[in-house]
User: What shape does this take?
Amino acid sequence: MKSVQSLVAAGAALLMLQPAPLSAANHREAPITAIDHKADITDVYAFKSYGGTTAGTHVTLIMSVDPLLEPGNGPTYFPFDKDILYEIKVDNNHDAVEDVKFQFRFTTEQRLPGVFTVYVGAGGGIPPLVPPQITTFDSPGLGQRQSYTVTMVKNGVSTPITNGGPLYAVPGNAGPRTMDYNALFTAGTYSLPGGVKTFAGTTDDAFWIDLGAAFDSLNLRKAVLTPAEDAAPVNTTPDFVSGYSVNSIAIEVPISMLTSTGSVLPANDPKATIGVWATTSRQRTTVRSAPLEATSSGSWSQVQRMGNALINELLIGVGSKNKFSMDQPKNDSQFTSFLLDPLLPKLLNAVFGVPIPAAPRLDLAPLVTYAPPIAAPGTPSGPIADMIRLNTGVAHTPIGSASRLGLLGGDAAGYPNGRRVFDDVTDISLRAVAGVLAGAPFNNNGVNNMLGDGVNVNDTAYRTSFPYLGNAPDGRNRRHIDPGEMGCTAGAGAPCLP
Assistant: This one.
């Protein structure tokens, strides 16, 4: 096995400096997914469950796809693609190859083929022509109904995970007259045999960022936060992603289902740390025979994958983004120059005068290898690979004590040790690439360790137990928060900076 140092040396010889544009966590970041947005993975989360009866004993894995969905954009809204294989993968022996994976496939019914919109319902006061408000998956007004299957593949053996009946996906939130979205969300959260829970459906986009400012050549409204701004659970700049939905798939499983030993291990055990990533794939052959629906067949070909937040967006050059998306984590040594000598910190230095460590950036190794402070000392580093590393032996942090800054905020259960829905990966990533993981002086100079975009919290409340995601904004009343507008944080507070 090559050492991290030798890979860095090999990668340094291949240094490429193509500009890497900023994007939301993984929203439309590669040319291939800018076209195939249904296969675009926006975010991946992996963390020890911290709410409900499974807190500390289970791991929650989430993948979100199909970015920046406008909630009122009917009449067909946002079904999962029946032709995509959605997978969440786990490496538990440090070779960057999946040992456990969960596969999700979707089926779509059109139950109201003569109606002009796929969701229709009335909460009262409407003539009988309109069905009652949609409150269950059997409601007559739920014209477009999706169900899905879950299959666990472990040691080459495929095992369906089912409760014996259909698993339904929660639809887009058309509005309060049409549907009781909360009731559907509750009904769509399933408890299955073996201590497994699943959820699939249209939800709030759990990510947040001042995206417009980032795309304006790093024209951040708040590049360096004050201590008060850094500590406050409020936003001083607009959350570009506010008011948008995504499609999310979540599964919660016992820790013992994921580790190589089949048991729960202490944090100091090398086998306690796993790697997590997600992929979307399409079959290689598609036949279009108008006016019939297209049919797909053949072997599966990966369209996109995602591990850590912002890797493909902030570090990988545009000319390599498609290749990165379609390749496997075990082959990421070819991207060493992007991963361990990235362009972004050099831009931070040029634009804001932020001091940065010299290359090679071994301080970034914990993001792309099994290394402390996430993995236990003595854990095989494995190949350079973009995966979320999660030490399953680290105790979960109760929500009231958690820090949005994860490890950088003294919260051992937060990003980059896994990723929770409320971890501020934008600020954490800016500070990490600026060198705070390298130690003094970068972690205590009042600049590198205070970098941020001014967006500290989501615009919608998260759930405090599985599946942890917030409600999708409803199509009638959704709100996007704009620069200079009152109500920068979740509809209240001071104006956003213009």
